[in-house]
Design a protein that fits this description.
256 residues; mainly alpha; 16 helices
């Protein structure tokens, strides 16, 4: 089950379209997706079109993404996970976040900064996913993807119809039947922060899962902020580490 590849595509979906929008100029469907080469075009327009409304936007998904690149397909799936309001608000930043390695770097910085603040503690090199062998990266990736899918459900927008759409879009990216079944199970299970947190087998993995969750939620939304707080509790994150993780996400997004 290659969770790492799928998660990497989702986290950096649309990056090529933002950086080189003219690349898709010869494709008529891609032109519908990416109509501007500057001044706010790119993935935000894609998500605005796909998620512009619960009715028409979702029903236009197939025609918008038919024949589109892998980045556009990943962006469409991520846009559905995030929901219309969040997709329009932060899609342009979060969806070009830089992929799985970038998430590991952010976790490493935050965890290291937090360790340095702990008076008298023995500091150890954080074993974040950007510093681990492939088998452990896959384990971390599965936990992060579980957290990402759960966070997408925190505002209650993922109903049966949305789940079907998301499964369809993810299915275009995933050729592994085992991974498809796993994703369907994650999408369909009830939201339970305690169950999500049980996937974290190391403190660093807990930090990475929390970062992915922060990227997905709208912290101004009461239900989503409450979910984040409960997830942090279930992950047993020190409040100072939780604050540092959120700070590093803001720093990285602001630097884009």
């Amino acid at each position: 089950m290659n969770t790492r590849s799928l998660l990497d595509q989702l986290l950096k979906s649309g990056q090529d379209m933002l950086q080189q929008p003219s690349r898709n100029s010869s494709n008529s469907n891609a032109n519908n997706v990416n109509t501007q080469s500057s001044g706010g075009g790119g993935i935000s327009d894609l998500l605005g079109s796909v998620m512009g409304g619960k009715g028409g936007g979702s029903s236009n998904l197939g025609s918008l993404l038919s024949g589109a690149s892998g980045g556009a397909l990943a962006a469409g799936a991520m846009g559905l996970l995030m929901g219309s309001k969040k997709a329009r608000k932060i899609g342009g930043k979060a969806l070009t976040y830089g992929g799985l390695a970038a998430l590991g770097v952010v976790a490493y910085k935050a965890y290291g900064n937090w360790q340095a603040q702990q008076a008298g503690s023995v500091q150890q090199e954080p074993q974040t996913l950007d510093r681990l062998p492939a088998p452990q990266v896959e384990q971390h990736s599965q936990a992060i993807l579980r957290a990402l899918v759960a966070a997408a459900k925190a505002d209650g927008h993922v109903d049966a119809r949305e789940r079907q759409l998301i499964e369809g879009e993810l299915g275009k990216l995933v050729q592994d039947a085992e991974l498809q079944h796993w994703l369907e199970a994650e999408l369909n299970k009830p939201l339970d922060p305690a169950e999500v947190a049980r996937a974290a087998t190391t403190p660093e993995m807990a930090a990475e899962m929390y970062i992915a969750s922060v990227l997905m939620v709208d912290e101004e939304h009461f239900m989503e902020r409450a979910y984040l707080q409960e997830l942090a509790k279930q992950l047993k994150l020190d409040p100072a580490l939780q604050t540092e993780l959120e700070k590093q996400v803001r720093v990285e997004l602001g630097a884009q």
